[in-house]
Amino acid sequence: MTTESSCLFAVVDKESEQREEIERKTKRDFASPQKTNGPSENTSTRMDTNDDPDEDHLTSYDIQLSIQESIEASKTVLYPESFRRLELPGRHSQSWYTSRCFCLTEFVPLSSQNRKLVEAIKQGHILELQEYVKYKYAMDEADEKGWFPLHEAVVQPIQQILEIVLDASYKTLWEFKTCDGETPLTLAVKAGLVENVRTLLEKGVWPNTKNDKGETPLLIAVKRGSYDMVSTLIKHNTSLDQPCVKRWSAMHEAAKQGRKDIIALLLRHGGNVHLRDGFGVTPLGVAAEFGHCDVLEHLIHKGGDVLALADDGASVLFEAAGGGNPDCISLLLEYGGSGNVPNRAGHLPIHRAAYEGHYLALKYLIPVTSKNAIRKSGLTPIHSAADGQNAQCLELLIENGFDVNTLLADHISQSYDDERKTALYFAVSNNDVRCTEVLLAAGADPNLDPLNCLLVAVRANNYEIVRLLLSHGANVNCYFMHVNDTRFPSVIQYALNDEVMLRLLLNNGYQVEMCFDCMHGDIFGNSFVWSEIEEEVLPGWTSCVIKDNPFCEFITVPWMKHLVGKVTRVLIDYMDYVPLCAKLKSALEVQREWPEIRQILENPCSLKHLCRLKIRRLMGLQRLCQPASIEKLPLPPAIQRYILFKEYDLYGQELKLT
């Protein structure tokens, strides 16, 4: 500890002791009432010397009350002379204590001299300022932001103003922080005032002070892109490799900004090209990520390691793939970078480029990445491009022979709740129509995932993706295999409240008969209720009702019962015979659609409708979903449309596809 700081501690401690002693004495004298049962020795003495004891007592009380009020007021006054001992360079606690002193303490109104002094600084009135700085107490007052006159002086452009204020301020104020945690030097650097920075440094201000964000003046200067500011700080022995809280250095920032001149300046004065930030990334990796090829080449020539890995295993080439600059990738490959080095997650540079959608970078990486490395990673660039919704990259990968039906490795698939496996699933779950179309056109199978892509698209209410999937062979009668609790195919339960989606599914071969296959009726439509014992022994049915929940049970629950009439009316358009069970019939009888439904059921179907259903059964679902197969039939276009239920294709009518 210096002699000056020791003296300051002694003075402040002595002042504190004196104030505490006066406060204790005052509280002791006025805490208990005066005794009145007899005069004390002191009272007798006072009566001998003064004929008016009450007046003396009141006078004494007034004096001591004034002292007490002064003490109470002093608790809220800011004492920079007392606190500046805590603002010594290198102490971790100084910024915390100072901010508490100036931001959390009750604010005392500034003196008139302080207000005049600050106004003179802002207006640049040198002569007036020279008079005001004579009032030292005005220099030691801070406003509600924790700004002293010195802080105001460093952010104005007149150098003489700063010199006057700096000479009149205590040296211990030179490191004081504002409520925002900024020192005079960091404020001057942020303001971009090179001459003010030079003045502060020449007066002896410490060049490596940090603000509360952990930023050094050098780092701030590089962020501003000021070469002159950086040069000035270096000339005054600032630390070149001093990192901020996140270990982000001036060298990293210069690489991010693409400032080759500042990088060269730092390296000439001993800057370290191998510094690592909080993620273990070198300046070389930063330059690669932000696509600054000239900086990247300069750092390589100065010893930067092309093969360096970050904490997560990412190579410099991996960072360049994320940046997308093909020149950076070409440069790194020229100097020995490899496209077959995965990060800890197993991802290669080609995956990163595909995910980010960097088409030109992907062109460079495809020929330098081995198929074996991709296989070991557990996923293909096709998955990455689909996940990133980059159709152009998908097309490039497909052109270069990547298989759209390659599945994710089990350990990756199991990391997803839905256990997805295909690139198509990524596109569908992202509601990405274009990528879905590209993948299906390239031969993607929509039925390879545990949770069928069609279920995902229907639940997302995406008509176009549903149409694309169905036209490319998606199984409309699929079940959700992990949680199969319905007797009927699962997909319809997500479309009950949407007639457009419902008819889109029914038109493409949904097995509507399964919706009327239940234990409550026989094959002749005779409605009756099975006993509980009989239900348990039905062939093909389990004893668990939840697992084999029939449609009539599903649709008649209280929160869905209002849909039963509307849905049943749509379903019977796709059947020749409708065996209503007792449960479903009782629910329908109270619906407004019941009269129409009953009339349809009581009359035979038309012959052309029966023929349509027969033709569809003979053709099979796979051929029905392929427009080319329908066009080959020796039938007029009108009959072809009739077979495909085009009169019920509400979505196609909206798009004018029918």
TrEMBL record:
Gene expressing this chain: ASB15
Region feature Disordered, mapped onto this chain: 1-57
GO biological process: intracellular signal transduction; protein ubiquitination
One GO location term (cellular component): cytoplasm
UniProt keyword Repeat, yes or no: yes
Keywords from the named record: ANK repeat, Repeat, Ubl conjugation pathway
Biased composition, class Polar residues, residue ranges: 33-47
SOCS box domain ranges (all copies): 603-649
Organism: Callithrix jacchus
ANK repeats mapped onto the chain: 180-212, 213-241, 246-278, 279-311, 312-344, 377-409, 419-451, 449-477
Family: Belongs to the ankyrin SOCS box (ASB) family.
Family matches, as SMART domains: ANK, SOCS, SOCS_box
Domain of life (superkingdom): Eukaryota
Role summary: May be a substrate-recognition component of a SCF-like ECS (Elongin-Cullin-SOCS-box protein) E3 ubiquitin-protein ligase complex which mediates the ubiquitination and subsequent proteasomal degradation of target proteins.
PANTHER family per record: ANKYRIN REPEAT AND PROTEIN KINASE DOMAIN-CONTAINING PROTEIN, ANKYRIN REPEAT AND SOCS BOX CONTAINING 15
Keyword hit for Repeat: yes
Protein name: Ankyrin repeat and SOCS box protein 15
